[in-house]
Amino acid sequence: MKKILYILISFIAFSTASCSKSMLEFEPTDSGSGEELLSEASTAISIMNGIYRSMWTAGWSTTGNTHQCFGIAAYNLALDCMADDLIMQSQGNGWFWYDHCYNMKSNYTSSIFRSYDVWYANYKWIANTNYIIDAESTMGGSEADVAYVVGQAYAVRALCYLNLATWFARAPYNPMTETSRWDEACVPVYTTGTTIETGGGPRESLKTVYGRIDEDIDTAIGLLEKGLHSTLANDNKSHVNLYVALGIKSRACLVEGDWEGAYNAAMRVINEGGYAVGTESDLMSGMNALDKQNVMWGAGIQTADQSGVYAGFFTHMDNQQGAYAEAAPKLINSQLYNRISATDIRRNWWDPNDKESPYIGKKFSFSNLASYLGDYLYMRVEEMYFTAAEAALRRDNAPEARRLMNLVMANRDPQYNAENYDGTMLGSTTTTWTGSLLENILTQRRIELWGEYGRLFDVRRLGQGIDRRSEDGFSEECLSTMSRRGVDLTRPDTYDWVMTIPQDEIDANPNINEEDQNP
Q: How far apart are CA 284 and CA 294, in angstroms?
């Protein structure tokens, strides 16, 4: 069973202009077409186009359950379903229900469930970025063009390792206790192109993996600065640019407890990126368009043959249009909803008075239902404000944190004033309220990014637990499933949040054995 191992010898070589099934046929790196594409920046960019396309395409990363396996948007939604704020009212057609109820870890022997999908996809992207990075010294084109292409490859590789670390290891730092676990096992690291003879690597420590993430993202930022004036750059928000790379860096720094790094990276985006905090019109139009002033990065789904139809994000979130979201409505935790000010326009993202599904979400909608269209949003500038505010406060700069919060909240709640909050106290769980300024920053972040960011990413790094309760909207079916499986999310150091390594990897990789499996 060598399939997972052999992902490291595959090569994505399809363009975003192609919409046929042939785009999912991978070519080996020693093929002539691969060498030709890598010889010039102007053609190597098509490899990056192919990577981006695969980040929202269903049907290639796993052999089944493809309607819940459509790349980055699916992984973010799964992490939301595993957390505290997004509630699935019922099982519906079953998609994302195993994530929601923590009934997926035992399925690591199957190639159609979450652990295989996440592992396979991210290592596929890593494998292909490695070939671009290896070709930097021989790639033809202007310095700016080569830097633009290779810089994206480094940024995507950093993001992939951050994804893998989030899914397959515990968080390296707990700010609640100011303790670290850098020596714990994470995932294998590959930094160069591989061949059929390449063997699988061992699980590296969290310190090694995050060291790789830091080095890659800093290299990406330096290259993308050089590539700002590349002839290949066209302000396409489906591509990672300098400011998206800075956004990725800010995320990694938050996990590491590097508050200065998180603040500086987020502030560069705010001050230099040319983005603007979304207005009411931007927020209330379905969250489905890359051209909004607050969107930094996403996937442009512009034609019917690019949409995943039922294998796509909006089918799971747009309950007004039926499909999967009608059978399994997505709700906001009623406790979180009740923390939203009566004058906050974001209250309109949910309906607490819906008779069949109280607190049902209305935040997301197709831009064109007939063609199943709607752009996927991966990163918005508002995230940078909340990141910078949190990091500033953790650096003992409360005035700066309040300033940033008042800026980002001005278009949301005219009555909001961060001067009303103080302190950094957090409760042991995410619904143990303290009223502190830090808690308010995190609460506003939770409200803002509901359904689009992957909430469990934050829960894990914050060192808090989750207390799911039926009175907040969680179904008895979900709670009983968790209880039967012994899942206890109130413990911030739990392994319930850590995915099991696919059996195919254990079988194929001589450096990962059964004893290396996550609990």
A: 13
Q: Which of 169, 167, 76, 129 is nearest to 383 (CA)?
A: 76
What is the tens place of the pLDDT at every residue in 424-473? Answer: 999 999 999 999 999 999 999 999 999 999 999 999 999 999 999 999 99
3-state secondary structure 390-411: HHHHHCCCHHHHHHHHHHHHCC
| Kind and range of the H or E run holding 378 | strand 376-380
In this structure, what DSSP letter does residue 205 have? B
Cα separation, 14 vs 1, in Å, equals: 26
42 SS3 class: helix
In terms of Cα–Cα distance, which of 318, 352, 315 is closest to 333? 352
Q: Would you say the pTM of this structure is higher than 0.90?
A: yes
Q: Inter-axis angle of helices 242-256 and 206-226, to 10 degrees?
A: 160
Whole-angstrom distance, CA of residue 296 vs CA of residue 239: 9
pLDDT one-digit tens code per residue, 216-251:
999 999 999 999 999 999 889 999 999 999 999 999
Question: Distance (Å, rounded) from C-alpha 186 to C-alpha 166?
Answer: 9
CA distance 56 to 36: 26
Tokens of 152: 């994206």
- What is the rounded CA–CA span in Å between residue 514 and residue 498? 16
Please give the structure tokens belonging to residue 398.
């409360």
* Closest-CA residue to 81 (of 428, 339, 338, 453): 453
The residues, any chain, with a CB within 8 Å of residue 475's CB and separated by 6 or more, are: 87, 88, 89, 90
- Cα 294 from Cα 381, distance rounded (Å): 5
DSSP designation for 89: S
Q: Are 182 and 200 in contact (CB under 8 A)?
A: no
Summarize pLDDT for 83-123 with one digit per residue, the tens: 999 999 999 999 999 999 999 999 999 999 999 999 999 99
Give dist(CA 390, CA 445) in Å, integer: 10
**pLDDT tens sequence across 12-59:** 433 333 332 222 233 333 344 778 999 999 999 999 999 999 999 998
Tokens matching residue 96: 């994302």
